[in-house]
Amino acid sequence: MKVSSIITAIIAAILSALCSALCCAPAFALEISEGLALDGSKVISYKMSTLLSESNRVDQNLKINLKGSINENLTTDLKIDDSLADKVEKMYFEYDNEKMNVVVGDINFSPITRFGLSEKKMRGFLANFNTPASKKENNLTLMYSFENGRPEKDVFMGEGRTGPFKLAGDKLMPQSDRVYIDAVLKNRNIDYGIDYDNGILTFNEEVPLGAEINVLYSVQTGFDNLNRHSFGAFAENDLSKVGATRVGFVRTEEELQNSFVPSKARTEFNLNQDFTLNEKLTTNLEYSRSFKDSVNSDESDARDGAAVSLNTKLAARYFDTNLKFSNVEPAYKPYHNGYIKTGKKSEVFFDLRPDRGPEILNKLNGTFGYSRAEPKDSAASIFTNEEDKFFGKFLYNFNDRVSLNTNFQNGTAGDIKDVKLNARSSKLNIENGISRQTRNGGADELNSLSLRASSFPINKNVYFVEYNDSSLKSSSMVKDENNDFNFKMKRKMSDDISLGYSLIDMNRKNMAEAESEATENRLMLDYNYSRGLALSAQVANREEKRSFAYETRAGLKGALLGAKYSPLDFVKLLFKREIWDSALQTRGINFMKIEDSSKLIIAWPDRPYSLELKNYIKTPEYDLDSGAIRGKKVSNAAQFNLKAGSRLKFCSEISQSAEESSLSPKTNTARQEVKYKVNDDIDFFLNVEREKSFITNISSIFRLEAKL
C-alpha cells in the first residue's frame, strides 16, 4: 500500500472520531460571578511527515486567564501558559479591607531604603496591616519571596549609542533583569528593552560615553539553579512631629541545586528616618546593614557591611538647596543581590523653582551642582578613579512651541556637553541637537550632530529631512564614524497625480577599516488614470562602496513600474516590474536584473468563492556580498478559496518554482487547508501539503483549539 494511502486513511479515522466526539459533546457554560472574567484556550496539534528528520509528534498548549473581582474584597489576575518553563505567566491575588491588604503571587515590594530598589520579578506574598481608620499613622508589613535561576552578570561601557548590547547568556528568565547605568537602576520597558530569547539589550536613549552598564539577570538551567528565599517584616510610624520612622529586616537564604556547596544566609537591617526641622528644612536618613551568618563562607564573604545615605533639603524662594552624602562599604550586599556601587559620594545641587521666580525665570527649569565620588573596592567596578564633577541640566521654554534643553558635566573622569532645540508649528516639527563627550583625559571622544525636520501631512503633502553625523575616537584613532543624510518629499499635484523624491547618503567607517558608502536618488510618481486603474513609477540611481564585500564598488540604475487594474467589481489585477542595471565596477561585470510579479484576483462580493493566480520571474544575478551566481527563478501558483456559510473555509493551492543552478531545480507543491468552526468556542484546522523536488515529502497538521 502506498504511503499516501496510509496517511489518508489515518487522517480520515482521526477526523471521524473527533467529529463524533465534538458533535456528541453537550454544550456547557461556565458561570462566573459579576466582575470576574474567565477565558483561555486549549490547543492540540498532530503533525505527520514522510521525512525521517521530521518525526511524527503531538503538541498541546493550555492557556487560562482569570481576571476581575471574586468578591468585594478579593481581586485576581491569573495567567497560565503551559508552554512556558514555569507554566504560570502571571499570578496576582489581592485581598483588601480597612485593616489589611494582602497580595499573593507577583509582588511589587517598595523597600524602606534606596539600597533595596529592585526591578526584578519576585513571587511570594506581601501583607500590610493598618491601624483603624482614625489612626492611619501606623503600618506593619510582612513579606516573603522566592526566586530561582542561575544568576549572571555582564558589564559594558557606554559609547554614546543606544545599543544593541549582546549579553553572554540567552533564554533569560522574563523580568529577572536589572540594568544599572553608573549605579542608577533603570526602568524596564521605559528606559530600555530586552529580548529574553536572544539576550539582546537596547536602550531608548544614548548611553553616555564611558558610562558603566551593569546587567544582572537569571537563566533557567534546571540543574544548577540558585534558589533564594527572602522573608522580612517592616513597620512604619508617623506619630512623631519630627517625621516618619520606617524600620525592618529581611533574611535571605540561598541554596545551589544539585551541589555540595553549603547554603548561604544573611540578614539585612533597614532604617529610614525623616526629620522635619521646620517648614523649609527637611532631612532624611537611610541606613542598611547586612549580617552574614554562613559558617562555611570564605573570609571576604563572611564580613558584615553597611550602607548609609543622608539627604538634606532647604527650600528657598527661587531655588531648593540639596545636600546628599552616601557611603557604601564593600562588604555590604543587598538582600535582592543587586548591584550597589561601593564608596563614598557627596553631592550639593540646586533645583530652580520657576513658579516662584521673577518673570524672566518663569520659563527656566533645571538643576545644577557638584559631586565627588570615591570608590572603595577595585574589584567591584572596572572604573575606580575618584571623580569630581560639576553638572547641570536646564530647560528653557521660549514659548509654547520653542524650547532649549542643555545638559553638561565637567569632571576629572570626562566631560559631557549637550544642546537640543525643539520647535513646533502647525505645519512643521524641528529637532536639532549637538553633543560632545570626552573620557580618559580626552583620549576617548564622541562628537555628534543631528538635525530632523518633518512636516505634518497637510493635504497629503509630506516633507522629511534628517541628518546625523557622529565620530567616536579612542586614543585619537577613529573607532566608529557615521554620516547619514535622508530626505523625503511627497507632494500632491492634483486629485490624481502626486510626485515624490527621496535622497539617501550614507557613510560609515569603523576601527577595523571597514567602510561602507551608499548614495541613492529616487523619483516617484503615482497616477490615478481612471476609477479602475492606478499607476505608479519610480526611477532610482544608487552607488555603493563596501570594503568588506565581494564587490567593493557597485553602481545600480533601476526603475519600478506598478499597476493596479480593476475593470470589474470582481476582478483585480496587480503588476510590478523592477529593472536594475547593475555594474560591478572593480570586476568589470555588468548584468541586468529584472523582477516581474503579477497577481490576478477574481472574487465576487456576494459569492463564497475566489481565485488567485500568481506569477514571479527573476533573471540571473550576482550576489554583491558573496559573489555567488544565482540562476533564473520562476514560480507560478494558483489558489482557490471557498466559504461554506460562516463556519467552513477551504483553501487549495498548487505551485511550481524553479531556479537554475540550484540543488533542486524544480519544486512542485500542493496544499489543502480546511478551517471549521464547530461553535463559538471550538475551531478545527487541517493542513495537508505535498512537496516534490528531488525527494517527495507529504506532511499533514491537525489542530484543534477550544476556547473557554
Task: Describe what you observe in this structure.
It is a single chain. The protein has 708 residues and is mainly β. Mean pLDDT is 81; it is low at 1-29 and 378-384. The longest helix has 22 residues, at 3-24. The radius of gyration is 33 Å and the shape is globular. The strands form four sheets. The chain has a 34-stranded antiparallel barrel. It has a four-stranded antiparallel sheet with strand order 8-14-10-11, with no helix packed on it.
Question: Summary?
Answer:
The protein has one helix and 43 strands. With 708 residues, the chain is mainly beta.
Attribute tags:
1 helix, single chain, globular, four-stranded antiparallel β-sheet, 708 residues, 43 strands, 62% strand, mainly beta, 34-stranded antiparallel barrel
